[in-house]
Every structure is written in C-alpha cells, then in structure tokens.
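User: For my dataset I need records formatted as: sequence, then structure tokens, nothing else. Please produce one.
Assistant:
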Amino acid sequence: MTAKETARDDRPECNLTDCDGNVFAIIGRVRRVLRKAGQHDQAAEFVLRAKAAESYDAVLRLTFDYVDVT
C-alpha cells in the first residue's frame, strides 16, 4: 500500500447532500468533520486551500482529497 493510499484511508466520511451548491457551506461542513475526527491540522489546511481556490469546482475537487464524500 502506498503512502497516498494510506492517507486516503484516514479520510472521515462527510455528507454534502444538503449544502445546495453553497461553497461556504461545503467548506464549513468539511472543516467540522475533520475537526470532529481529530484532524485539526488538516482542517486548517483545507480551509486555507479552499479559500485560495479559484472556483467552486476547485473546492469540490479539493474536498475529495480531505474527506470521503458520501
């Protein structure tokens, strides 16, 4: 198993079905899920990277790197 696969296994599940296309709701939900899972550093990193993203689609792609979207 590669390091990247191991890191992906540590991703907590995150349900985004009720965020209704609101990028701020997505950022907040992912942040809460990461913090609840004890991944405080990843939560802070995600928020910084999401704020720097150039589009809604870029935030969505980034989301899949940090959580397992259900």
